[in-house]
């Protein structure tokens, strides 16, 4: 088991219960998708894995180790994070953007650059594109840069929050295939959040269906969801 949620609850300071007593196991490898309507606690669940959000109750284990016991630098190295609008720095080149994580975790410049170039190549971008600025790339290419940045520190887990929802449908299919290919080739564990049930079924090896109030409705294989009455 890669990631385990043990009775995890998150209440925000304003009293909103975003996640309510969630217990769930994310298997090693493959793509696990959290799906459900807007506001049901998907993003909050994802962000508790890398401690961008701290649980109010319960705990989350990665490889049987409480994430609360992991040093921030180690969490950053071992868990990549991809968001909807890539979140790139506009005044830095693609290469410099992808180097941010390896640099943050203290790798020297040479190592950070090598790791970044490798990650850029992995997502199908060229050295020429690496020297450009984000605005000079298409939306889909920018999202590839976001994925490259998440992969640059050679993580075991990659978290993706609505990674395809800002790009048009044809590009979306390309990116979905790319993520599937990368997951297999690198043997990483991908945890992906989407509100799109079709995407969850086509992309997920395991699907956690959430419902309003931060509850887990069902943990299923895509096949089980398809054959539901
Ligand atoms: P989803 O990703 O499924 O859309 P979220 O995890 O973003 O759900 O949000 C779950 C609930 O928690 C929503 O009601 C949302 O408005 C609320 N919420 C999210 N972030 C915060 C926050 N920082 N402070 C207060 N409420 C929040
Ligand atoms: P996304 O849809 O990309 O997950 P959101 O627009 O839901 O992002 O949230 C953007 C930021 O606002 C996040 O940091 C989230 O935690 C925070 N946030 C979301 N909902 C609320 C809320 N009801 N109250 C306070 N902060 C919130």
From TrEMBL:
<keyword id="KW-0813">Transport</keyword>
<dbReference type="GO" id="GO:0016887">
    <property type="term" value="F:ATP hydrolysis activity"/>
</dbReference>
<keyword id="KW-0067">ATP-binding</keyword>
<dbReference type="GO" id="GO:0005524">
    <property type="term" value="F:ATP binding"/>
</dbReference>
<protein>
    <recommendedName>
        <fullName>ABC-type quaternary amine transporter</fullName>
        <ecNumber>7.6.2.9</ecNumber>
    </recommendedName>
</protein>
<comment type="similarity">
    <text>Belongs to the ABC transporter superfamily.</text>
</comment>
<dbReference type="GO" id="GO:0015418">
    <property type="term" value="F:ABC-type quaternary ammonium compound transporting activity"/>
</dbReference>
<keyword id="KW-0547">Nucleotide-binding</keyword>
<feature type="domain" description="ABC transporter">
    <location>
        <begin position="3"/>
        <end position="229"/>
    </location>
</feature>
